[in-house]
Design goal:
Largest sheet: 3 strands, antiparallel
Order of helices and strands: HHHEHEHHEEHEE
Distance between the termini: 58 Å
Radius of gyration: 29 Å
Shape: elongated
Strand content: 15-25%
Number of domains: 2
Length: 210
């Protein structure tokens, strides 16, 4: 009887206070445990009250760990993007127009859905936690000798893998386990790097002389 009433009241307590923080619910729960422990007349008080008290109830939300997110953005010039694309394409036997990239923009959904490289997934994407981007990107090449502009469509995943390889070859530091997302601006191709770090640690705090 005691355990049934305790579990019933605990469920009612958590459902009636859905927005209370975890610590407040924990204090209210401890008060309920003490109350039913004192009133043994409802039934036999079990010997494992401490285990019941310390057990996390399925009705109480667990307090999420504190995380700090570090955000970096690598901005690649069109000259750097041109070098990265040509180096990655040479490894796959791909040919690109002469000249250099002067513009990069997202293409329509049809260009991606019917792209021959839609299923392209480089191993480096998984090794360096590169987020998949189901989009096609239109690159504009400008040939300074003939003054011609030519266009080519590539998948965002191929460009992401090419830029990661470019960073590795040029010793541009980046956390391997951080999430990396490709993005475009009006003048540059960018790579956003998001790294989550635990803010609670059992060790001693850092000092200025460290």
């Amino acid at each position: 009887m005691t355990m049934y009433k305790y579990e019933l009241d605990r469920k009612r307590l958590c459902q009636s206070h859905p927005r209370l923080p975890y610590k407040c619910l924990r204090k209210l729960e401890d008060h309920a445990v003490a109350k039913y422990k004192k009133k043994g007349k409802f039934g036999t008080v079990p010997d494992d009250w401490n285990n019941i008290k310390n057990r996390k109830s399925k009705f109480i939300r667990e307090e999420p760990p504190s995380m700090a997110t570090e955000i970096r953005r690598l901005i690649f010039s069109h000259s750097e993007t041109t070098t990265a694309i040509r180096n990655a394409g040479a490894a796959h036997g791909m040919k690109f127009p002469e000249g250099r990239i002067i513009r990069a923009r997202y293409a329509g959904n049809a260009e991606y859905e019917f792209h021959s490289m839609k299923s392209f997934k480089a191993p480096i994407q998984g090794d360096y936690n590169v987020k998949e981007t189901p989009k096609a990107i239109t690159l504009t090449f400008f040939d300074e000798k003939t003054f011609e502009q030519k266009f080519i469509n590539l998948t965002a995943d191929f460009i992401s893998a090419a830029l990661i390889e470019y960073c590795i070859n040029n010793k541009i530091m980046m956390p391997k386990n951080a999430e990396k997302i490709l993005d475009l601006t009006e003048f540059n191709v960018c790579m956003d790097i998001n790294l989550e770090s635990m803010t609670e640690s059992g060790g001693s705090p850092l000092k200025l002389d460290e």
